[in-house]
Write a structure and sequence with these properties.
The complex is a heterodimer of chains A (about 270) and B (about 500).
Chain A: H1 3-14, H2 21-49, E1 58-59, E2 62-63, H3 73-95, H4 98-101, H5 112-135, H6 138-154, H7 158-178, H8 190-209, H9 214-237, H10 248-261, H11 263-266
Antiparallel strand pairs in A: 1-2
Chain B: H1 2-19, H2 22-40, H3 46-57, H4 63-80, H5 82-87, H6 97-108, H7 112-145, H8 150-168, H9 173-187, E1 190-191, E2 198-199, H10 213-229, H11 249-254, H12 256-270, H13 277-291, H14 303-327, H15 333-344, H16 355-378, H17 380-386, H18 391-410, H19 413-431, H20 437-459, H21 466-469, H22 471-485, H23 489-505
Antiparallel strand pairs in B: 1-2
Helix pairs in contact in B: 1-16, 2-3, 2-4, 2-16, 3-4, 3-10, 3-15, 3-18, 4-14, 4-15, 4-16, 6-7, 6-14, 7-12, 7-14, 7-16, 8-9, 8-20, 8-22, 9-20, 10-18, 10-19, 10-20, 12-13, 12-14, 13-14, 15-20, 18-19
Classes of the chains: A mainly alpha (about 270), B mainly alpha (about 500).
């Protein structure tokens, strides 16, 4: 089966409405696990709700009031209803054969290519939001993400997806390890430099492999212009806070804007 | 009659004030353009357009301009979805799914330009019908809504969540309800509205103020879309476009009854809480198929089929704004994003809303529909070129837009973590075919439900009869119970038997 076919198959499995009997069987098998997770979540939150006073307990000598005043009342109803509805989904799933298919990979519609695609995107997004955006210059981190995502997913090549996720993860891991505490997020620029170097190397790789592809050739332009324009519009146009103001590139832009550029029209 | 004339005069004043302001045009043209682009690119949706622009304009420019940007994008995106439906057989938005049924066969026969021209006209007329209904009915409902108290508000919020769950679910209806319950549960996080009791904060001070609406919207609508659509980007095969796009007047006159009927249906469906443009399109298409003389040709390239869905989905916009402005209950997922914009501007839609805002919304809608009409007729070929852009190029850009938009509204990195978490949840729900719209509506209405439900009990010493003793509350309670009962197996079977017997007897 070609890669294109695999991609088309995976698309039909997850994007289109429930159509064939097999789609429905796969969905019921997934529903089995989904319902179990929902029941567990409902039970957990029902337990957590028990921490909120319900029956007029005294707090610091003050009566908590009657049951109908309690902050636990509505959550209690919500999680009970959610749990009961999850049981209903579980029963439907078991009745329609979902439980018997739930333990096999074929039964739940496992698709290795699709799983790899989702895992690599998730890794890229988690490291971008969780590690890079708080610690690293926004232009550099977003430029790296845009380069990685376009390069990794435009051709649908699993190897490229892995390279894309690894590059964002590498930059993110360095930032996380070197500057984990919040106090260090804005200060040193070594994580900015590491991200910038990874982005630059990645861009060279992309351009070498471009071979007549206009999309590949456009990646460096998009990756540089989009975050730069966005962050400048947000900071200087809308005067809003932007992530990592002290970042390597943005701090230079900000300095030059306020010291060299803005006086041109402010001092008139 | 005096009431209608008074309304039109108020609308006229708001319209002239907007038209006289040159800045209006900058926001209007750019937002409608952006909306059409978002609608036209498969993988981007109208909800996403309004959500992303909420991040950018929500609380950063004066409210009037923010509303122009958001409503312009909303109108443009719903219309823009028709481009890929007709030319690629891929609906640009869920609202245009029914459009592809007849649009693409027409384009394959070389009538793509004609289809686009008529679609543009139908979308324009549809938007105006919905807007006119908004202008008239919003005041009638506002008068009624001023008499509703906490019990009615609580039951109405619940009804909105349940109805959205019922109609937006493509698999089991109960999944829609669970999705709504998850949204309600998310709204419970933070200090409770009556006693300031912390709930489910797990010692994290950020959660004391509850989940912020914009990161939830961004997470629920943008992240799953990015994960789902970031696939191999091929160059789309666009059907050839021949002839003129501007439609012939005679043809518009011929199909005007279809356009008018679909406009009314779209407005009606839109005014139901939590039901979006896609449902409006399909309902109108279904009605059109059953009442039209051309019914048999629907799905094979019928202009009437095309106009049935395209008029209705745009008319739905005005309808969706009615419950939003009157009751604070969004009529569609993009209206939920609009609700987020109102909230971050400290405006609470509902019976206490400033009437001037409603008139400005109507004036903006009219201006946006004219802009969309002109752009659709005279710059359509630009949008067709944009269709060639692969989604692997614009989705990473959307991710960066979403990140900076979400960050700037709250100004904190925690909003981004929340966005990512909600995105992961929404993607998981997508995989299991749980609809996302009821979740968002649950988050938005959860606070209202919690506060009004408990206040009702508090004022009546815990007497649950308050939800049945007031006439309005009794009707709403019956609607809630009826909606739930209608989905129960024995009731469904009984209803089916009744229908069979009635048919047999007749």
């Amino acid at each position: 089966m070609s890669l294109d076919q695999t991609d088309q198959d995976s698309r039909s499995a997850s994007q289109q409405p429930v159509q064939t009997a097999n789609d429905k069987a796969v969905l019921r098998a997934r529903d089995f696990w989904g319902a179990l997770v929902l029941i567990a979540v409902s039970l957990f939150f029902l337990w957590r709700t028990s921490f909120i006073p319900l029956w007029g307990e005294n707090r610091a000598g003050v009566s908590g009031g009657d049951w109908y005043n309690s902050a636990a009342l509505v959550p209690l109803g919500i999680f009970t209803a959610m749990g009961l509805m999850a049981v209903s989904v579980l029963v439907t799933s078991i009745r329609e054969g979902g439980a018997s298919r739930a333990l096999s990979s074929v039964g739940i519609g496992w698709n290795g290519f699709e799983a790899w695609r989702i895992v690599t995107i998730t890794v890229s997004l988690v490291f971008y939001i969780g590690a890079l955006v708080p610690r690293v210059d926004f232009i550099a981190s977003s430029g790296l993400l845009i380069t990685a995502l376009i390069y990794g997913y435009h051709t649908g090549n699993p190897r490229r997806m892995g390279i894309a996720a690894a590059s964002v993860m590498l930059a993110g891991l360095y930032a996380l390890i070197a500057h984990f505490p919040q106090a260090e997020w804005n200060a040193p620029h070594d994580d900015d430099m590491v991200t910038l170097v990874i982005w630059a190397v990645f861009t060279v790789v992309v351009l070498v492999q471009a071979r007549g592809s206009s999309v590949m050739k456009a990646i460096p332009v998009i990756a540089l212009l989009v975050p730069t324009i966005l962050v400048c519009a947000m900071a200087f146009g809308f005067r809003q806070n932007v992530p990592n103001r002290g970042g390597l590139l943005f701090s230079q832009i900000e300095y030059n804007y306020y010291v060299n550029l803005r006086p041109l029209w402010r001092d008139r | 009659m005096n009431f209608v004339l008074g309304q039109l005069a108020g609308f006229g004043d708001a319209f002239i004030a907007l038209v006289a302001d040159p800045v209006t045009y900058i926001y209007l043209i750019s937002s409608v353009f952006l909306g059409i682009v978002f609608g036209a690119l498969p993988g981007l949706t109208a909800t996403l357009a309004v959500t992303i622009l909420t991040g950018f304009f929500g609380n950063k420019v004066p409210l009037d301009y923010a509303l122009i940007a958001l409503l312009g994008a909303y109108v443009g995106a719903i219309y823009g979805g028709s481009y890929p439906s007709i030319l690629l057989n891929i609906p640009g938005t869920a609202a245009s799914a029914a459009t592809a049924m007849d649009g693409y066969p027409l384009a394959k026969r070389g009538r793509g330009a004609e289809a686009l021209g008529l679609t543009t006209t139908a979308s324009f007329v549809g938007t105006l019908i919905g807007t006119f209904a908004l202008l008239i009915f919003v005041w009638v409902l506002l008068l009624i809504s001023q008499n509703i108290a906490s019990p009615e508000k609580a039951l109405l919020a619940l009804f909105g969540i349940l109805l959205s769950g019922t109609l937006m679910s493509e698999d089991l209806v109960i999944k829609g309800w669970i999705s709504g319950m998850i949204g309600l549960a998310m709204a419970m996080v933070g200090l409770d509205p009556l006693l300031s009791e912390p709930r489910y904060t797990f010692g994290w001070s950020y959660l004391l103020s509850g989940f912020q609406v914009v990161p939830v919207l961004m997470g629920a609508f943008a992240i799953p879309q990015i994960i789902e659509s970031l696939r191999m980007g091929g160059v789309a095969q666009i059907a050839q476009l021949k002839g003129r796009i501007v439609p012939k007047l005679g043809q518009v006159r011929r199909y005007f009854p279809t356009i008018a009927r679909s406009g009314v249906i779209g407005t009606g469906v839109g005014s139901l809480p939590g039901v979006g443009e896609d449902v409006a399109g399909w309902v109108s298409y279904g009605v059109g198929k059953s009442v039209s003389k051309e019914g048999k040709t629907f799905g094979k390239g019928s202009l009437e089929g095309l106009l049935s869905s395209e008029t209705a989905n745009n008319a739905c916009i005005g309808g969706a704004l009615i419950p939003l402005l009157v009751l604070g209950i969004p009529g569609s997922p993009p209206a939920a994003a609009l609700m987020g914009a109102f909230r971050i501007n400290n405006i609470i839609p509902g019976p206490t809303i400033d009437p001037a805002i409603i008139l400005r919304v109507v004036a903006i809608m009219v201006l946006a529909s004219f802009t969309m009409f002109l752009m659709g007729l005279f710059t359509a070929r630009i949008f067709i070129k944009i269709l060639k852009l692969p989604q692997t190029v614009f989705l990473p850009v959307v991710m960066v837009l979403t990140t900076i938009g979400s960050f700037s509204v709250g100004g904190g990195i925690n909003d981004l973590y929340l966005m990512l978490g909600v995105g992961a949840l929404a993607y998981g729900m997508n995989l299991l075919r749980y609809p996302i719209a009821p979740l968002v509506i649950g988050v938005i209405l959860g606070g209202l439900f919690d506060e009004t439900f408990r206040r009702s009990l508090f004022l009546h010493d815990g007497n649950l009869a308050v939800f049945a003793s007031r006439p309005g509350a009794a009707i709403l309670l019956a609607m809630n119970v009826g909606l739930i009962a209608s989905q129960l197996g024995p009731v469904k079977r009984g209803f089916r038997r009744l229908v069979t017997r009635t048919k047999g007897a007749s």
